[in-house]
Specification:
Structural class of chain A: mainly beta
Order of helices and strands of chain A: EEEEEEEEEEEE
Oligomer: heterodimer
Structural class of chain B: mainly beta
Largest sheet of chain A: 6 strands, mixed
Shape of chain B: globular
Number of helices of chain A: 0
Helix content of chain A: under 10%
Number of strands of chain A: 12
Radius of gyration of chain B: 13 Å
Chain lengths: 113, 115
């Protein structure tokens, strides 16, 4: 069965620094991949998704993610973090090759001023 | 454009009771998905309805059920509540989730506490 691993439970960065959140998936074929963000004020939001095609995906709020088949990874990046980016981030893989997400346990992002 | 609304926002029930949660999607959206979020199990997919038909179902017992009406509003029902059903239940709507350019929008959730 497909699964997602987010190796980092917490990540702390300084405001203005770059960010990379790691996500590794387990699935035999080309997966559907997602990143979500959850914050108290905004609730849960879909940041971006990869279905096929270009392996570099642009999302909302200045985030991007790159699908690397050879590494079974779909890491989320942002060049300059803002204090408002502090939140919980979830990576997900489509279940059984579908668009139905199986979620990772999340990475909590803390942003220092 | 109004967002996804969920009612009620908070609910307290006792074991053995049943509960019905409601979700109103964004106007024009035909897909409604439900998710459960708990500290122990994290985020899990419950089911998806599209044009009044259940299109996908997650790995939950039959006590969890749902339906969708002709106006795309959806309800989910949990019968014979257990303590472990305490969770945040999230609803999301989209036009067509299989489409590459589609975006899913989430409601604020219903916080269910089972005593």
């Amino acid at each position: 069965a497909q699964s997602v691993t987010q190796p980092d439970i917490h990540i702390t960065v300084s405001e203005g620094a770059s960010l990379e959140l790691r996500c590794n998936y387990s699935y035999g074929a080309t997966p559907y991949l997602f990143w979500y963000v959850q914050s108290p004020g905004q609730g849960l939001q879909l940041l971006l998704k990869y279905f096929s095609g270009d392996t570099l995906v642009q999302g909302i709020k200045g985030f991007e993610a790159e699908f690397k088949r050879s590494q079974s990874s779909f890491n989320l990046r942002k060049p300059s973090v803002h204090w408002s980016d502090a939140a919980e981030y979830f990576c997900a893989v489509g279940s059984g090759g579908s668009y139905i997400p199986t979620f990772g346990r999340g990475t909590s992002l803390i942003v220092h001023p | 454009k109004a967002g996804v609304t969920q009612t009620p926002r908070y609910l307290i029930k006792t074991r053995g009771q049943q509960v019905t949660l409601s979700c109103s999607p964004i106007s024009g959206h035909r897909s409604v998905s439900w998710y459960q979020q708990t500290p122990g199990q994290g985020l899990q997919f419950l089911f998806e309805y599209f044009s009044e038909t259940q299109r996908n179902k997650g790995n939950f017992p039959g006590r969890f059920s749902g339906r969708q009406f002709s106006n795309s509003r959806s309800e989910m029902n949990v019968s014979t509540l257990e303590l472990g059903d305490s969770a945040l239940y999230l609803c999301a709507s989209s036009l067509e989730p299989t489409a590459k350019t589609d975006t899913q929008y989430f409601g604020p959730g219903t916080r269910l506490t089972v005593l």
